Amino acid sequence: ATQPSRTRALAELALAWTPDTLQPHDVTQLQRLLLDYFGVTFGGADRPWVTALHTWAKAFRGTGRARIVAS
Fold first, then answer.
1. Tens digit of pLDDT for each residue in 21-70?
2. What is the DSSP letter of 63?
3. Coil, strand or helix at 22
4. How far apart are CA 28 and CA 45, in angstroms?
């Protein structure tokens, strides 16, 4: 039997979490983290360096398979 990748194992663990399996302080912290993530993402989406990065990345769209490494 092959061993699952670390990325897959982490994804499976994350998918198994529900509010019922977490402590209340964990749920609160996850809410904070998501709020921070979305604030940073939406707040920075119009920055010139972000739009330049998107333009650069479009050149590589659909050029092959991608792997998540050390994520």
1. 999 999 899 999 999 999 988 888 889 998 898 888 888 777 777 666 55
2. S
3. coil
4. 26
Helix H or strand E encompassing 52: helix 48-58
Q: Which residues fall within 8 angstroms of residue 30, CB to CB, at 6 or more apart?
A: 22
DSSP letter assigned to residue 47:
S
The residue behind tokens 């990345």 is: 57
Going by the DSSP 8-state scheme, the letter that residue 20 receives in this structure is G
- Check if the beta carbon of residue 53 is closer than 8 Å to that of residue 45: no
Q: Residue 18 is which amino acid?
A: T
Average pLDDT over residues 10-17: 90
Cα separation of 23 and 6, whole Å? 24
- SS (HEC) of 23-40: CHHHHHHHHHHHHHHHHH
